[in-house]
Structure formats: C-alpha cells, structure tokens
Amino acid sequence: MRDKRDKQRLYRAEGIKLLYSNALPGILITFIVATSLVFTFLGHENRAGKLIWWATICLLLAVRLVDTLLWYRANSFERKQNHFYWRFSTGCLLTALLWSGWCLFFSGGFSSEEFTSSMVILSAMAGGATSILSGNALIGTLYPIIVLVPFSLELLCASEKYKNNLGALGLCFTAIMVFSAGRAARYVKSAILLKYKNSQLLERMEETIRTRTQEIYEISHTDSLTGLHNRVAFLRAANALTLRYKQNEISGFSLFFIDLDGFKAINDTLGHDAGDQILLAFSDRLKTFNRDNNAMLCRWGGDEFIFCIPLTDRAQLARLAQEMNESFSQPWALRGQELFLSATIGIAICPRHSEAITRLIQLADIAMYSLKGKQPQRVAFYNRELETELLNQVYLQEALKSALAKNEMRLVYQPIVEAQSGRIVSLETLLRWQCGDDAIPPSLFIPVAEKSGSIVPLGYWIIEEACKTLAELPPAAKEIALSVNVSIVQLQDAAFIDKVEQLLTHYAIAPERLHLEVTESLFHESQTEIYAKVSYLQDKGVRISIDDFGTGYSSLSVIQNMRIDFVKIDRSFVNNIDDKGLAVVQAVLTMSGTFGYEVIAEGVETARQAQTLLNFGVPLLQGYYFSQPLEKAAMLARVVEATCATRL
C-alpha cells in the first residue's frame, strides 16, 4: 500500500513537470489559432462578441503564461506541490470551455466554410492536446470532450445534413481522442515509473544497498509493530550494559518486567487490530519515561515489555514505577471510545539480585507474576520468598494433574447441627490432599487448581463422591444433605449443569439433598451467566448456600436478587461475637425473615459461642465445638449413632 502511494505521488509530480514543460508550445499554438480564427471570420455579425471572446482567451493565456514562468522559477520541491497541478488544470480546462463557447455562442452566424473550419480547428486542438496533456490522464481526457462534444451535439441536432455529418465526425473524433489520451497517459506513466526505477538503480545504488542493509538489521533487531528492541537486540544491548557494570563504568542497573493487564480481553472481544493499536499506544507511553535516553526498551513478546535503566536506588525505582502505572492507567482512546487498562510491574536489580541479564529477566518476571490478581498492588521488587512461592505453585500445579489418578484426594465431612437439639441436618464436604508425606492445605492448592483449570475435573469428582456418600447413608438418615463448595471456574464450565443432573440421576439422589456452597463474590464477576445456572438448578430442587457471608462486597444484592436457601455467617464474625460480630449476626437474622433463607453460623468453637448464637435464634451451627471434620467411616458411624439415638 505504501509503495502504491509513493508511485502515485511520483506520477503526480512527474506529470506536473511534463504538463508545464509542454505548456509554452500549447499556449503559443492556442494564441495563434484563436487569433487566426477570429480575424479570418471577423465580419459585421457578432463582431463585438468575437473580439470579447478573443480578448478573454488572450487574458487567460497570459495568466497561464505567468503561472508557467512561476513554475520554471520554483525549486524542485515547490514544483511538486499540488497547487501547481490545480492551477494548470484550471487554466487548461477554462481554455477548453472557451473553445467550446466559440462554437456555441457564434455558430448561429457561421457560414458553411466557418462551420467546417471551426470543426477542423477544434479537432486539431483536441488532437494536439492528447500529446501535450499526456502527463495527466484526467485532463487529457476532459479537454477533447469539453472542446468537441457540445458543438458536435449541436450540429447533430441541426436540420442540415452536412452539419449532421460534421457533428457525427466530431463525436467519432472525440472518442478516438479520448482513447488516444488514455493510451498516451498510460505510456507516459509507465515511462515515468521506468525512468524513476532506472535512475534509482544507476544514481543511488550505494544508498539503496545501505538502506537495504539497515532494513535487514532493523527487521532482525526491532519489533515490527512498536519499533522497540526485540529479544535478540535487547539481550545484545543488555549484555553490553552488564559489561559496563563489570568494568565499573556504572554502579548497576535495574530491569522492569511490565505486563499489560486486560490485554487478552481486548484481543478476544475487539480483535487483533484493536490489540495492535493498544500495544502501539502503550509503547509510545513507555517511551516517554526514557527521559535521558539512557534506558533500553524492549517488547519481550505479546503484551510483555522490558524497561532497563542504569539506576539502582530502590526509592527512585519505586517512584518511577508508580509514575508508569499512573500513566498506563489513564484512558486509552480506541475507535471513538475510552478503555481503562493497567499494568503490573516486576523489578529486579543488578547486582543486588543477579549480575546475569537472563536471570534478572526471570526474577523480574517472577516479581510481576506474584502480583497477578492482587489489586490494587501493581509494583513488586523481587525477593527470594516470591520465587519460593512461585516454585511451590508450579510444583502444586504439576502434582494436581495426577492427584486423582494416584488416589491422593479424599473428602472429610463436618456436621451441621440444629442449635436447639444438636441433631445433624447436613454435612459439609471438605477436600483433603495427601501428597506423599505432605498434607497440602486447601488454602494453598485450591487457588492453584482454579488458576490452572484443574478445579473443573476435581470439582466433578467431589460432587460424584458426595453423591456416592449420600447413597451410602442408612435409610434413617435419608433427610441428611451434603454441602459441596463450588468455584466460579466450575460454574463457568458449559457442561456443569448436565454433569450435576447426570450424577443425581445415576445415584438416585433427591436434588434437595445436594447443597452447593458458593461465595457471594462469585455473583459479582459474571452475574447473568451464574444467575441463570444457579436458578436452573434451584428449579430442579438443588439448594444453594452463600458461604463466608459478609466478607464480600455484594452481600445485599446477592440476597435480594437470588432465591438463596442458606446463608453461612463467616467464622470471623462468630469469633468476634462479643464485639462487632454480634451486630452482623443480628442483621443477618433480621434479613432472614424478610428474604426467607435459613442461617448457619460456622466456626463455632466454644460452648459460650454456641449458647449466645442459640439465644439470638440462629437455627443451624457448625464448628469444632460440635465436631471436627470426620473421615468417611467415622462420619457414617456418627450418623448411624445419631439416627439410632433419635429413634430411641
């Protein structure tokens, strides 16, 4: 596309040059022919009009002559400007209009000789224009049309046969001239382009070679979209910077690993062209922080960038990173709308963290990755704890892939009891992972499973195990339900509803005996999709619990918009029941009467807490005071014992 535009500009510039080069002969011929025609047939009829016409065309030719002289006096750059093209075009086409006007205005008094002479002269003028105006196809085509067509049409409409013949000849000649003008223009255009190519090859061979060499270097060393260093060029330049440090030329340097948050969503929703525009704008903002031209900037890949600067003071680096984030958080204009994005920055310092550039990149990447999903933090300096944490996450992520196959996962069950009677009404399933000799707590592996997607097959296994357990309960305990924790990743899986229905059918479990526990924040992220799935399951009989109620930011809206069956008061409020926690308990109990849900207090660890909750009317309790999580066999024995005691 760029080459095409360059050729068009070249053709326009050379065309202007050709038009003005032929202008003087054309102006002279036009003056001679116009003067001869007027004074040859200057009779008494239309004498004044013909003289006015002659004076007008002479004035126009004088103006065109001055314009041509101005073009000759202009420098090479000015000669290529578009205003010369428009001035020449205007003067040339006005001349054509005057020739056309000669016949239209005065033909009423023409003799047969004057008709014939006028037609011959106009045809000659049109024919000559095809070569003189060959520098521009449009002008070369319009000139004969304007000169001949109006007069030819007038002659065709006349009653005399010889006039009709002259009109037909005029139209035929016009068609031939238009065709000839097009061919001449194409030939001239090809000649111009060929001349340009030859001159470039002959006169600028050495410069062309240097340009191509530079282009090859840039292609291999710069990012094609942003113009920043690519990986190869950055590593080479950074190694040179490391050498300067080792030679004590600088005290050290720091490396920022920058990741653009939310970029994938732009690519997925608005397309890769929009994503490229954002990346280009992002790189422009990043360049503004190279204030002393001593930093190195690199597009490492995708939406990841590196900013390397010979600065090691932690406070200064923190300020610089904060300024970057403030800049990156400003609105991004895209297709007439504003987008709001941000960036996460990890920082590693030479020599404090490492002297090897590849290691520094790795460490800065680790620092950046440690902040993903931890708003509002956006800047992290590398430390060894971050690397240890990341390595542990990688280890857990890999181990999770085979945990089910190795039978390392199991469920334990914690009873939920009636506050008044102590009767077990349901059981919460809790996942445990014994990885070799290590018991991995859920607080560590559940976030890793959600992030890696392992939570989906793991979640289906949990629901199936819960259904198996429900099927194994004694007949006297058929009213007891099981609660299963469900994450947003599971609910977003397209097969979730079908899978739950299949398991309930396969194990012949009444849907109301399966309780799904979700956190209130889950509904904030994807309300429409989650609401639809939860509502469908509720319509089928499955009951829904809101876990950790009161710790999120959408509590009231969740209660108001969903037909929640149970609300579990978070253990933090139960532990703080003698202070502000009691107010939360009272508020939840008050709302339960309005919205029709049941209240469960979890984390009950003492008799005093249990009695206080009972006194305030909390109907269901859960916690270590009643039972620790039980292995399956112990749970079944406890249920059998409880049901036997109930019958007695």
UniProtKB/TrEMBL annotation:
One Pfam family, short name: GGDEF
Keyword Hydrolase part of the UniProt annotation: yes
Database matches in SMART domains: EAL, GGDEF
Membrane-spanning intervals of the chain: 20-39, 51-72, 84-108, 120-153, 165-185
Residue ranges of every copy of the GGDEF domain listed in the record: 251-384
InterPro entries given in the database record: Cyclic-di-GMP_PDE-like, EAL_dom, EAL_sf, GGDEF_dom, Nucleotide_cyclase, Rev_trsase/Diguanyl_cyclase
Keyword terms of this UniProt record: Hydrolase, Membrane, Nucleotidyltransferase, Transferase, Transmembrane, Transmembrane helix
EC numbers for this chain: 2.7.7.65, 3.1.4.52
Protein name stated in the entry: Bifunctional diguanylate cyclase/phosphodiesterase
Protein species of origin: Franconibacter daqui
Domain EAL, residue spans: 393-643
